Predict the 3D structure of the following.
Amino acid sequence: MSYIDYRFLSGKAFYHKILVLILLFLALYILVPLIFLVISIPIWGREVIEPISDSSSTLNINLMKVLQLFTQIGIFGISAWLFVRMQTNKVSEHLSLNHFSNFKTHLLSIGLLLCALPLVYETMLWNESIPFPEKFSSLYQSLIQQQYRSEEMMNLFLNTQGVGGLLFNIFLIALIPAFFEELFFRGALQKLFLDTLKNKHISIFIVAILFSAIHLQFFNFLPRFVLGLALGYMAFYSGSLWPSIVAHAINNGISVVIAWMYYNGYTRVNYQEIGETPYWGITIISVIACIILIYFLRKTHLPNKVYE
């Protein structure tokens, strides 16, 4: 049997690689929902393809959750794997999955995430207060509606009863997105920009913008961008994808647990209020703490000296 070498992107220019990655992403963006329909119609019937008139029904919520699972694995995970496989046989090494980092690195990464929460919340308020000119009022209303639908969907996902519902939401909303989004953004995309630009700050900044923009939530753009910056520095300075995966999962998991406690009457704090502080000074301290923790991450690991 003849050997087929799939590494046709190896040694190609940046524009070749980024074009292939975009095409892979778009192709899977179309194919994954179609595959979901093909699989789900025999199970749930033809109402799967009908408009969701009652989004609060148990069936529709379960369908949306299954589609969410398909989307994360199919669009982010498979596109990242295929893209890297077109460059090398050592996919795990290229994605920085073969190095787990030490306990100190994970501790610093988790600390960075937690210290960033007040800053993330404050940037969310700034984002929501961005003024729109009168002539763009229709666009503003459209963005408001889109944000409302996204929040309504997330509330339906998070409003669950029992420990079983909590554990499933941790799996679906915390673990799955953390792993597969990090594969795509910090594993495949950030590595591509680092190899091309040879500048860690610009590369991490660009990927953080793309990470936030691809979620299509204008009023959450700045806080998600800040989170993307933190995750980018974690992955770069640790030389491993696992610290950013763990931190990403903890970030999402905190929201899941707080929401579960809120909807089950254990707390009055909503998950959207995480990071809220009564004083500006705490946000300033948050920024300083983040800078210090990034510095310690840098001092602990310098795996990418070519980009210094």
